[in-house]
Specification:
Blueprint: E1 3-6, E2 13-16, H1 19-24, H2 31-38, H3 40-48, E3 59-64, E4 67-72, E5 75-76, H4 78-82, H5 84-90, E6 94-99, E7 105-109, H6 110-126, E8 135-137, H7 143-155, E9 159-161, H8 168-178, E10 182-186, E11 189-191, E12 194-196, H9 198-206, E13 214-218, E14 232-234, H10 235-240, E15 251-252, E16 256-262, E17 270-275, H11 277-290, E18 298-301, H12 308-320, E19 324-328, H13 339-347, E20 351-354, H14 356-365, H15 368-371, E21 380-384, H16 390-400, E22 407-410, E23 444-447, E24 460-464, H17 479-486, E25 495-503, E26 509-514, E27 518-521, E28 524-527, H18 528-536, E29 541-551, E30 555-564, H19 572-585, E31 594-597, H20 611-618, H21 633-647
Parallel strand pairs: 6-19, 8-9, 8-10, 9-16, 10-13, 13-14, 18-19, 18-20, 20-21, 21-22, 30-31
Antiparallel strand pairs: 1-2, 3-4, 5-15, 6-7, 11-12, 16-17, 23-24, 24-25, 25-26, 27-28, 29-30
Helix pairs in contact: 2-3, 6-7, 8-9, 11-12, 14-16, 20-21
The structure holds adenosine-5'-monophosphate-propyl ester (PRX).
Adenosine-5'-monophosphate-propyl ester binds at residues 262, 308-309, 384-387, 409-414, 435, 497-499, 511, 513-514, 520, 523, 525.
Length: 648
Amino acid sequence: MGDKIIDPQSEEMKFKPSESFAKNANISDPEIYKKAEEDLEGFWGELAEDINWFNKWDTVLEWKPPHSKWFTGGKLNASYNCLDANIEKNGDKPAIIWEGEMGDIRKYTYEELLEETSRFANVLKKIGVKKGDIVTIYMPMIPEIVIAMLACARIGAPHSVVFAAFSGEALCNRISDAKSNLVITCDGYYRRGKVVSQKHKVDEGLICCGQVKDVIVVQHANNDIVMSEGRDMWWHDLMEKTDTKCDSEVMDSEDMLFLMYTSGTTGKPKGIVHTTGGYMVGTHISTKWIFDLKEDDIYWCTADCGWITGHSYLVYGPLSNAATILMYEGAPDYPDKDRFWDIVEKHKVTILYTAPTAIRTFMKWGTEWPEKHDLSTLRLLGSVGEPINPGAWLWYHENIGHGKCPVVDTWWQTETGMIMISALPGITTTKPGSATRAFPGIDAVILDEKGNELEPGQDGLLAIRKPWPSMVRTVHGDEQRFIDTYWSKWDNKTYFAGDGAKMDYDGYFWIIGRVDDIIQVSGHRIGTAEVESILVGHSAVAEAGVVGKIDEIKGEAIWCYVTLKTGFEETEELKTELIKHVAKNIGPFARPKMLIFSDDLPKTRSGKIMRRVLKAIANGAETGDVTTLQDPDVVTTLKEKTAKAQSI
Ligand code: PRX
């Protein structure tokens, strides 16, 4: 049982690791923080010994701010680390337990996963994929997505996984930016009992992506699809005739492992580049320490492989630790609201890593759903993607963890590659709502706009002062954007995370949320500019201002303020059409919650839409100084319209 303490000074609630958990934890000596601080390179160098290298590195770190190279001269392969390295001891151990939404179950041992991966790696080679070619993977949560990722890593072809719920157009943008000419997809997948035709979206997306020569299609939902002669090939046909032995390519530590597109403050998503050695060391160690992985754990990270969490904490981190991972294809409320708890009970899940939005949704559905199931196998709970409010933290701890599981709230980003702020469950006393302390070796601080370090209790900007192994290396094809976005805020050597946060007197971090034009909807990053550019792409729209509004369940929701072109009428039909237009062009997860028509938007004299003012209006907050607006009266009109829209 974790000991609950009420701090008499602050009346804050705290949870100390139980003695038994601390005794058996993978890391339980608090000295580790000091050790890392005193000798950063020595610390990471020692940890790097934990993974498999074909050739050991010469230098742990070359830091020429803002560029870092980790473990230079080292040679390794990520797929080898996740598969081959585990065969001797764990060949017969399940690597993946997969459950489909329809209830079908598939299991792969490490031996089988190695075989399938090697076979698919040979398929890729046969169709001409070479080291360095970027392969786009556009698949739902089926085992083949992991096989495809590991097969790419095996032959040294960086993967770019595009979240399956993105639209064909969003897929096309990412394929074009990556200059990828192979797409791996499937016919369809299940979502709340219905089949989503994935291949149909690929066909739509590829209309404007002439460079794609090959499409490999997994037959999964058996829905009717059109196979385009000379371009589309069935996965099973290709696999049938292919050998199961494929040596791993020897990769340099700094060779690209994958590209991951993420939303930024312009309409164009950024291709975040991660390399091999540092990423593998960072994800391997953080998984081992933060999730305290043990031999017989059944580990379930509910994130999709289409996001960074799926990459780091479903695939590379856990598999390189020889864990048994659980994967689930579908929705948490299909066929009923206890699907997650049914899965936990059935597969005896011991570690659960999910998002605050999911937790708040479960809270809303009520405790009767988890109560129907035996959740006693759970021993550790995790949270990621957005700030978790203390109420949701406590609910999770009490109703899912039954008071006995440590809760690790993990702060990190696509760009950081690994968890940067989190409790170490055998060491850290947790406080509901705080991600607690920076991981050993991570120099996180709170700075003001000018770069001065702030006192505890003061709101400021989250920054990281020292490099870490799994850090973003560049933005694909746009080095300037890499520098401008992350490094130029202060001194070109301090990483700007884009989050507001504060530290308390115990050195614990409390994350407030994004300070830039990014909205975090259910933990999914969506750029306001991305939504605005889709809206103004509609023939009826003259201008659009998009902001995030605090949402009880999803953390933030998308609110759009739209000015129509002359000749278009502000009707309910048009409003619905525009909302659908956004969902169709980005993906259903980006569906705006509210759309308000207005003849004018708050603009500076130079004509720039002031999202800050719109955000304050949407959230019912003080708008601050509006005297610099072209027309300050627009604020009053928008406040009235917002109040009216909310009352409906
Ligand atoms: O605002 C922070 C929020 O998610 C952002 C990163 O989004 P993304 O790159 O999509 O990665 C999400 C999964 C790692 C951050 O800038 N965020 C992530 N985790 C937390 C969080 N905010 C508060 N608490 C967290 N634990």
